[in-house]
Specification:
Bound molecules: flavin mononucleotide
Structural class: alpha/beta
Helix content: 25-40%
Number of helices: 8
Largest sheet: 8 strands, parallel
Strand order of the largest sheet: 3-16-15-10-9-8-7-4
């Protein structure tokens, strides 16, 4: 039996298959090394990195909700310098494309991170998280305003020739408008969605169940919203779109591919079943075989209203 071709292209990078890990749910990948074969993944995206290390928000930072979870980790990370020194040597031993997710509180920070990453051979691309508040613009998130989204992506574009994936926030009225702005600014690919802002109250104390009060909702609860947004975006941009949001099974991933996503990222599922990425890859292949398709491209974007 000839196995179906699972390869997809994200800009100039070829992935073995369309299944990547979502930032913040897969650590720096070494945490999963004894559980799954990291070489089987389509791509690895590590925890969001900033210029300096960050401790994130005080606890409690995670709460389980119906069909999902709320998190307010606050982008805790070891900082780019320690990442390069301590994590890259391990990550170099794999041939899975590595993408580094970055965030900053002002445009200069994004640009500086991009210029540091540009010289690191092992890193294939950068995923820009634009859900962070821009301190210079009074704390409004870069990703909710198309001009600000354009500016941050254009400034990163100037600093690197690596693949640029721009990760969109769903907390907007018109997701397609933001997608068009970041494509115009030079994005090679667009990933969506990040978490949806939510909250949970402890009825005994009358207080928030998160110290930060609000948090980001993820997991199966957000899948229909994510799928709708991916479908809206693929109709407006030419660059490959990466679907994220509540993907727990191969069937969930296939829905995103049919809607037009070229690849998918697996997030909250990693906390429920650490081998979910591998099971999703196997499940997609089994689906293609069952349907008699020779390539993943036979299902991507085949959605008919
Ligand atoms: C605990 C946790 C930490 C996260 N950290 C990041 C992060 O550092 N950068 C980022 O862009 N997204 C981060 N995300 C968002 C995920 O990458 C993903 O976009 C979101 O959870 C939706 O996908 P899911 O429903 O499959 O989890 C985080 C999500 C969770 C649950």
């Amino acid at each position: 039996m000839i196995r179906p071709d699972l390869t997809v292209d994200i800009g100039k990078i070829k992935l073995k298959n369309p299944v990547m890990t979502a930032s913040g749910t897969f650590g720096y990948a070494e945490e999963f090394n004894n559980i799954i074969d990291l070489n089987r993944l389509g791509g690895i995206i590590v925890k969001g990195l900033s210029l300096k290390p960050s401790y994130g928000n005080p606890p409690p930072r995670v709460v389980e909700t119906s069909c999902g979870m709320l998190n307010a980790i606050g982008l805790e990370n070891i900082g780019i310098e320690a990442f390069v020194k301590k994590k890259i040597p391990f990550l170099k031993t794999f041939d899975t494309p590595l993408f580094v997710n970055i965030y900053g509180k002002q445009i200069d920070e994004y640009a500086e991170l991009a210029s540091i990453i540009d010289s690191i051979e092992k890193i294939e691309g950068i995923e820009i998280n634009i859900s962070c508040p821009n301190v210079k613009a009074g704390g409004i998130a870069f990703g909710v305003d198309s001009k600000q989204a354009f500016n941050v992506v254009a400034s990163v574009r100037k600093e690197t020739s690596k693949i640029l994936i721009v990760k969109l926030s769903p907390n907007v009225t018109d997701i397609a408008e933001i997608a068009e702005a970041v494509e115009l600014a030079g994005a090679d690919s667009i990933s969506l969605i990040n978490t949806i802002t939510g909250m949970a109250i402890d009825i005994d104390s009358g207080r928030s169940r998160l110290a930060n009060i609000t948090g980001g909702l993820s997991g199966p609860a957000i899948k229909p919203v994510a799928l709708r947004m991916v479908w809206q975006v693929v109709q407006k941009v030419k660059v490959p779109v990466i679907g994220i949001g509540g993907i727990m099974t191969a069937e969930d991933a296939i829905e995103f591919l049919i809607a037009g996503a070229t690849a998918v990222q697996i997030g909250t599922a990693n906390f429920v079943n650490s081998a979910s990425t591998i099971e999703i890859i196997d499940g997609i292949e089994a689906f293609l075989i069952k349907k008699g398709f020779s390539s993943i491209k036979d299902i991507i974007g085949t959605f008919a209203c």
